[in-house]
Amino acid sequence: MDVREGCVRTLLIIVCCLGVVAGVVAGASATEVMLSPKDGPVQPGETVEYDVVIEEASGGVGSFNVTVRTNDSSVLEIRNVTYDDSAAYTHDANGSREVRLAATGMDTLDTGPVTVATVTMEANDVGTARLSISVTALGDEDGDPYTVTDEQDRTLAVE
To answer: What is the pTM of this model?
Structure first.
């Protein structure tokens, strides 16, 4: 093997390795999960709905498991959960302070932001409450997992 063949072979190996790395990176979908709308004051007795939104659903959303909680249920209390109509199975363990949402068999929009559930909160008393969301599992419609890059919490003032 001469120097020229060695250089061509090395170049081919480098190109193949770059192709494999690019394929792995392209197959891994990353997204943020948030509660929407953003912060805004409400009065005691009012209800406010927060959508659970997957920001970049490049393959739709087929299943998810998230927990939404408030740090102060005397100020803001969880009242109800509704899911996207396409869910074949849903589960929510209701509580006034925390709710675990899970659904499978969903057929959602395949691109852009996707709302998978809505959590209804009731303002009980004057104060400020923090709403947090944590994702245990999130998959596209083919069953491939998303990489969650950020979970955006909210703060709500009751005045």
So the answer is: 0.78
- Contact call for residues 71 and 132 (beta carbons, < 8 A): yes
14-27 b/e with 16+ CB inside 10 Å = b? Answer: eeeeeeeeeeeeee
For 153, other C-beta atoms within 10 Å of its C-beta total 16
Give the whole-angstrom CA distance, residue 129 versus residue 46: 14
Sign, CA torsion 110/52/118/81:
positive
Read off the tokens for 80.
């109800």
Residue labelled with tokens 């559930």: 117
Q: Tens digit of pLDDT for each residue in 40-60?
A: 799 999 999 999 999 998 899
How does pLDDT run across 1-30, given as a tens digit for each residue? 554 444 334 333 333 333 333 333 344 489
